[in-house]
Structures are given as C-alpha cells and as structure tokens.
Amino acid sequence: MAVTFDDLLVRARALAAGGRRALLGIAGAPGAGKTTLAEHLVRALNGDGDPWAAHVPMDGFHLADVELDRLGRRGRKGAPDTFDAAGYAALLRRLRAEADGPDPVYAPGFERVLEQPLAGAVPVPPSARLVVTEGNYLLLETGAWARVRAELDEVWFCAAAETERIGRLVARHEEFGKTHEEAVAWVLGTDQRNADLIAATRHRADLVVPGTAMPVP
Length: 217
Fold this sequence. Notes:
The chain is of the alpha/beta class. The chain has helices at residues 5-15, 34-46, 65-71, 85-97, 145-150, 162-175, 180-199, and strands at residues 22-27, 53-57, 105-111, 116-124, 130-135, 154-159, 207-210.
C-alpha cells in the first residue's frame, strides 16, 4: 500500500506517545522537499489544538561565508564540511536533555536572502513534544555527522523524482539571485555531487517517503 501524507501524520504522532519529547529527522537531497514536508507536518500536527510540534532546520548550522572564505570552501557551500556538524549534534542532544526544562531552547535559523545563518532565531518551547528537524546529511556516517543519527528517534528520507527535484532547485537558486545559467551550473555541479553522496545514505532511513506522499511546495 502506498504511503500517504495522512500515514506520515499517524507515524509522527506515535513517536511522541506518552508525552516524551521525540526527535524526527527528515533527510534527502537538495530540492527533495524536506523543508516543505517538515513545515506541513508541523502545521498539521499543531492543528490538533495546542502547539506541540516544532520545526528545527539543519541549515542554521551552515558556516558563515566569512569562515568559508577563510577555509577556502565557499565554492562548495552546502557540502558536508561547510556545516558545523558537531554543533548540530550538540543541539539535538540538548533538545532531548532539556525537554522538560522551564525555558525554550534556541536554535539557529538560516536567512535565504542573505544566505547566512542567524543565531537564536528558532525557539523550541518546553511544550514541544515532537521536534522535526530536516537537512541533507542526517544519515551520513562520517565525522561528526555520525553523532546526528544517534540523537534522532527516526529518520525519513524524501525520495522526490529527479526531474522535479532539479527543477525546484534551479528555480530556488534563481529566486535568490543566480542567473539561469549560474543556477543550472551550480545544481548540476556542486549540488549534484552532494545529492549523490546523500542518495548513498538512503538505506539507513527508517522510512522512504515517495514524492506522491509529499505536499506540493
């Protein structure tokens, strides 16, 4: 039987059964629909009544451009070593450890127009029993990324059709300032190298979410 969005809602609710805080990861290649799925899940779950689900993107752990320039990695922005993976894993650990604390836990966000991380932009209140986090490398086994999977109760993998994924990604790069030619070159170069790496982690996911189950961006 094909997986539907309603099936995903049921599975997400079950993760936080009993009132404990659960962490759900959503992985996938650039443009696969991770953010859209996370946002729709959290919105639908919070529609039940009092907000109890929160969305924490991995993108807030991008290294700032000034640091990427210092390291000589600006031209590979989005690759695994252009993120603070250890910091991301530490945040996930803190979200679990301080689930019943009196104060929110603050996570960094990411400003798409500036293409820069923003500290303290995403509050996760004590009432959040499910934290949905999404990003490219949640299933990667190398370096500090290996710590990330250990902090998550489940990880789902977005398996969007390649033509749709690439089309969305080109449009996104154009929206934020690249010419069509620049966008296509980046998507088929840097982004595709990252996508191939991410695709190789798919077998580690607890659930593969087909494009038919994902909401339209």
